[in-house]
Amino acid sequence: MRPMRNGNWICCRLMNNDEREAHLAYLQAQADGPVEGFELRERSLGKALACALTGLSLAGLGTWLMALAVLFAPQASSAAIWLLSAFGLGLAGTGAAALACAAALYCRHGKRVLSVTPDSLCFANAQAPTPLHAFDGFDVEQRHFSTRLIFTVSAAGSAPTLAPACFKALASPDAVAVAGGLRVSLWLCTPVVAGRHIALQELVDLLYAYLQAAQARHTLAQLFPGVARLGEAAR
């Protein structure tokens, strides 16, 4: 996990000319970030297959146990029959739930999680892209079966407008607003960029480069608007 925070804001009113020039050079260097966008997509086919095999096994075993309960009902005691039936029904229900998860993960496979440009970020269920400088930083959490991205909204920014989550959210890599809208969270099974799986640290470095450059350009526009306009014209 690597948090990223904006360290570009320095009050120019308190700087002398040398400090202003040094800070301007620093911001210009940071602003020269990536020039092309990318899409982060989901890869969940392997986990969907594992859930499907597990579900079929459990459902088959549960069905077999319930069939045994019916077959031996005349000879066995009622307590044994009820126990066998309940155990079989529980296994069959668990298997059905695993199959439902497999179907949802299959639907997630290949879907877009994020669209990132040099100046904006768009979640899968967002109504419109959000300026990258609206985020103060991000965290990445690696779990056993998934990766979670958590973006922190800056004090001067506003959280993106997201379609509300519903019971079908498992089948789509949608983002949700948490902490009263101060953070935006999403999870995915395996991150993929340009058809290639990327490691956790590579994903962190990639997002960091885009966020750092966007924040530097935004700070330039606030503190040195003339320089920022020249930079936009050059781009």
Task: Characterise this structure.
The chain has two domains: 12-43 and 110-234, PH-domain like, CATH 2.30.29; 45-108. A six-stranded antiparallel beta sheet has the order 4-3-2-1-9-10, with helices on one face. Strands 5-6-8-7 form a four-stranded antiparallel beta sheet, with helices on one face. The two termini are 33 Å apart. Mean pLDDT is 84; it is low at 7-14. The chain has helices at residues 17-31, 45-71, 78-108, 200-223, 225-234; strands at 38-42, 112-116, 120-123, 130-131, 135-142, 147-153, 176-178, 183-188, 191-193, 196-197. It is α+β, with helices and mostly antiparallel strands and 235 residues long.
Question: Topology of this protein?
Answer:
Blueprint: H1 17-31, E1 38-42, H2 45-71, H3 78-108, E2 112-116, E3 120-123, E4 130-131, E5 135-142, E6 147-153, E7 176-178, E8 183-188, E9 191-193, E10 196-197, H4 200-223, H5 225-234
- Fraction of residues in helix: 40-55%
Give the strand content: 15-25%
Give me the side-by-side strand order of the main sheet.
Answer: 4-3-2-1-9-10
Query: Strand tally, please?
Result: 10
Please trace the helix and strand order, writing H or E for each element. Answer: HEHHEEEEEEEEEHH
How many distinct folded domains?
2
CATH architecture of the largest domain: Roll
| Total helical elements | 5
- Tell me about the largest β-sheet: 6 strands, antiparallel
Give the N-terminus to C-terminus distance in angstroms: 33 Å
How much is the radius of gyration in Å? Answer: 26 Å
